[in-house]
């Protein structure tokens, strides 16, 4: 199964010069928890609802502050043809819940979230519930408690 098979296509994007309030409104209006940040049509970062809370609000930033001040720069991404196991590995290793999907020009064409993995698991798209549970567990571990790297994520392995 490829990233294109489960990604949410054409996500809303913002630019580094947009305000944190603008990005928060995009999240509200489009019911999403992350917005890819593009500059000149190329992915340069991503901002999550957690970034807005922890890096902006908790730090006392003004709502008109530029989102460039709170984004996670150079996020790990995949191509549409990447295997879903690569998405799972990135989520697990980096403890992130969303992975942007980019084209050859580094334009964000989609995003794969934990929710997309869950839907694939429950829709019978060659992603087992066990596989999904391992990803969620690894993403959710406290950062100071590493997971067992001997447990391999393998889409071909049955339950």
Please summarize the sheet with the most strands.
Answer: 4 strands, mixed
Judging by the overall fold, what is the CATH architecture? Roll
Number of helices: 6
> Any idea what the shape is?
globular
Q: pLDDT below 50 for ≥5 consecutive residues: which ranges? A: 151-159
Structural class, from secondary structure content?
A: alpha+beta
Name the helix and strand elements from N-terminus to C-terminus, one letter apiece. Answer: HEHEEHEEHEEHH
Q: Rg, please?
A: 16 Å
In the CATH scheme, the class would be: Alpha Beta
> What percent of residues are in strands?
15-25%
Kindly identify the CATH topology.
CBS-domain
Number of domains: 1
Tell me how many strands there are. 7
In percent, how helical is the residue content?
A: 25-40%
Averaged pLDDT, please?
A: 86
Strand order of the largest sheet: 1-7-6-5
Query: What's the CATH H-level homologous superfamily?
Result: CBS-domain
Distance between the termini: 17 Å
């Amino acid at each position: 199964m490829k990233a294109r098979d489960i990604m949410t296509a054409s996500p809303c994007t913002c630019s580094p010069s947009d305000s944190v309030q603008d990005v928060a409104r995009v999240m509200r209006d489009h019911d999403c928890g992350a917005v890819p940040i593009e500059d000149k049509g190329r992915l340069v970062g991503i901002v999550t609802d957690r970034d807005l809370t922890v890096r902006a609000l908790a730090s006392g930033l003004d709502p008109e502050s530029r989102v460039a001040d709170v984004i996670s720069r150079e996020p790990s991404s995949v191509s549409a043809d990447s295997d879903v196991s690569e998405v799972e590995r990135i989520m697990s290793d980096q403890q992130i819940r969303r992975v942007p999907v980019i084209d050859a020009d580094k334009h964000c064409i989609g995003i794969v979230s934990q929710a997309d993995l869950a839907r694939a698991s429950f829709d019978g798209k060659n992603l087992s519930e066990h596989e999904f549970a391992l990803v969620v567990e690894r993403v959710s571990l406290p950062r100071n408690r590493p997971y067992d790297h001997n447990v391999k994520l393998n889409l071909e392995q049955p339950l």
